[in-house]
Amino acid sequence: MTVSPDVRHFKPxxxxxxxxxxxxxxxxxxxxxxxxxxxSSVCVFDVVRTASLMPVCRDGxxxxxxxxxxxxxxxxxxxxxxxxxRWLPADDGPNGxxxxxxxxxxxxxYASHKIEWDVIRKVDGEHRRVTVYFEAIFAAIxxxxxxxxxxHFSRFFHDHAGSSPSIFRTVSxxxxxxxxxxx
Length: 183
Prior knowledge:
The protein has a domain at 37-140. The chain is 34% helix and 25% strand. It has 7 helices and 4 strands, in the order ααβααβββααα.
């Protein structure tokens, strides 16, 4: 079954996903939740919506490029690609209107996905059809550093940063107010 992302009618899988989508002003956002909780689906819809709402360039088009970084390519292929390809299938688009579709790579290496679709936007006071040129680049930091197994990358990271990548991410999101000052 082919499902295309209709960003106007997407219902987030819960309140955390809804809050994530509602916060479209923050420069950096994080979405945490259980396996199978819909995080990837929410993020796919978020990037399609964000791309569609980008400012229109002088030539009357929208250009949007996105980097998606995982620990390893294998991890991206197991965890993200199935969701990505389910919502952004090769033969469809938002409301069935991809005009160009090109997914290259994968199989344990760098991948990219180029898509074009049209949106109706107000330009110079008039509603016009605007083409969105979208490119997602998938990269894996562990593989780029020579670690094809996530555990090896995590161990290297721990040895050099003093904590695991997950603890490092959690602590980096905390503010000074989250820590108690010793008395």
